UniProtKB/TrEMBL annotation, chains A, B:
InterPro entries per UniProt: DgcN-like, DgcN-like_C, DgcN-like_N, P-loop_NTPase
PANTHER family recorded: DUF1611 DOMAIN-CONTAINING PROTEIN (PTHR40690:SF1), GLL3100 PROTEIN (PTHR40690)
D-glutamate N-acetyltransferase-like C-terminal domain: residues covered: 141-338
The protein's name: NAD-dependent epimerase/dehydratase family protein
Length: 347, 347
């Protein structure tokens, strides 16, 4: 867990952040930074851009020393480029940030900690580096032992259908109602948004369920852990991750996430998306292994590719089909899903 | 793939083996060596034991230089001890083997390649080290693309119920009938028996199905790849590995493995074993994602904990229940299962 400036503790990454954009190729390249700026604006002191950068997150453009002066603890390299390679200017900027007294975090395939110059700069400044794709050491094997507390997991018909956004929208809506609710991150962007978490697709295969047990331990405050799902039981490349995540989460409640305009499983033209009812039932059946009382509480539809009237009609159709509230978290909110969740677990 | 002594190729691990026993604590500690001696006696030149060693594989006791003189290519450290730690005498013996001109392989948690003295000895002798728990670099993400050839996968109600033995028994029986059939290893002992393979529980989670696609590529000779299963869809700690393995294998045929005296899932007293029919149907349903034509062809029962008449009765009962041949591969062979496999895929 990060600490936020207590000088008696060792340096640790975490917010407040300076969001590093550099000179990104396109909007997709700053997806992670955009997610953090969207969900945690209060953690973002500013953005660092090269002179040629055409994109913006709408944050103040500031340098590293100024960011430090304004209270930033960490520079987050939220860019992704082809192959996850660390360009020479990113290396130079990471070193400059460390020399300015910031910790540095990144989610590139190529690791900060694999670059000797960056490591040396961190050491001479007493700053820490964090690679979001490197799982913490010491993750245990899953035990399947029932644990206290309530947990909700987002599951999907496919990869990249909005599981992280849905989970964070639920956190925001529940907190606005005064419920204790905590997002538990399982992917790179989610980890930066939460300031903690495990990149569950990067752990060694034997430890998938253990990693999820570890990030959502027993709780006794009547609150909810809201666990970010990954992949899909129906994706031939990644279903193992999704199943281990489902078992480790021991979810009480599932929210099914779907993108209705998608024509095939992400990256695999030969594979159609699963039928919604079949997908939900398969997830419930698998989840019962570690929590026999699991139930579905809602459907989150990513309708960004549809006109508004069609989106509403699609939600109504799916709601009728599955007898569950169905909403687009971005354009419609998640109040109906939260209503149903709280009604299902009222006592 | 290992080469076996062609001086124009670089040194590579592989048989013939000198099996290293050292001074093991108990029979369980030499399980891997015993598996290799049982399934590949023709690859085993001898065993290396310390004077106090009470256990034997029934192989000639020879030293390292003599093993080299008799044609051994590799010393296999087939022992496991508490915590997978490499004891000082194992380090010394590994160095002596390298100095005698042998390659050295091991399946300990602690890696040969993490020990500077062992690495130096390998370098000065031009020998290679291989840690069976280290997956090869460059394993791709699974694609789910249909590939040519026929594949059989062993699946289980639990871990350690005889999946490797069953798969190897099928290979032996099919080869005796003149069928092309190749065991594909997914665990440490299997990798030493096959001389190749991937420790699928040690790959990064995103690459489970890709690893299995990689070890069982398309084949066009009408032969069978017989893929060693791992874990169980019903084991809360490891089901993710089992599901990724199932999807990557794209199996045409499944053999269900079971140990009927087991009272709960391995290591988890709170979890009963799944009912056989439910377990088989769940495996078939999940396997259909990447091979809709998958079918079950038999059940392998590990009856080592039962008297012979009971074992026969148990096989009969399960055979009637599932309408599949059911045999103990060790005490009864696998001929009825092979008969059914070949009948099911006759054309």
């Amino acid at each position: 867990m990060p600490n936020h400036g207590d000088a008696t503790l060792p340096a640790h990454w975490g917010p407040p952040y300076l969001l590093y954009l550099g000179n990104p190729a396109d909007d997709l390249a700053i997806k992670t930074a955009r997610g953090v700026a969207w969900w945690r604006p209060e953690w973002c002191v500013g953005q660092y851009r090269h002179p040629d950068c055409k994109l913006t997150l709408g944050l103040p453009d500031i340098g590293m020393a100024e960011a430090r002066a304004r209270g930033a603890n960490t520079m987050m390299i939220g860019t992704a480029n082809a192959g996850g390679v660390m360009a020479p200017e990113i290396v130079a900027d990471a070193i400059a940030a460390l020399d300015a007294g910031l910790n540095v975090v990144a989610g590139l395939h190529q690791k900060l900690r694999a670059n000797a110059d960056i490591v040396a700069a961190a050491q001479r400044n007493g700053r820490v580096l964090f690679d979001a794709r490197d799982p913490a050491p010491g993750i245990p094997v899953g035990t399947g032992r029932p644990r206290a507390g309530r947990r909700l997991l987002t599951v999907g018909t496919d990869c990249s259908v909005g599981k992280m956004y849905t989970t964070l929208a639920l956190e925001r809506a529940m907190r606005q109602r005064g419920c204790a609710a905590d997002f538990r991150a399982t992917g790179q962007t989610g980890i930066f948004v939460a300031g903690a978490g495990v990149p569950v697709d990067a752990v060694v295969a034997d430890f998938i369920s253990g990693a999820v047990e570890w990030i959502s331990p027993a709780r006794s405050d009547d609150g909810w852990d809201l666990i970010e799902g990954q992949g899909s039981l129906f994706h031939p490349s990644y279903a193992g991750v999704s199943l281990g995540l489902l078992h480790g989460a021991q979810p009480d409640a599932l929210v099914l996430c779907h993108e209705p305009t998608r024509r095939h499983m992400r990256g695999l033209p030969g594979y159609p998306l699963p039928e919604l009812r079949h997908c939900l039932e398969a997830n419930l059946a698998a989840a019962r292994l570690t929590n026999p009382a699991v139930r579905a509480v809602g459907v989150a539809l990513n309708t960004s590719g549809m006109p508004a009237p069609e989106a509403l009609a699609a939600c109504q159709r799916i709601s009728d089909l599955l007898q569950l509230p169905c909403q687009d978290p971005v354009s419609m909110g998640v109040e109906a899903i939260v209503d149903n969740l709280l009604a299902c677990f009222a006592n």
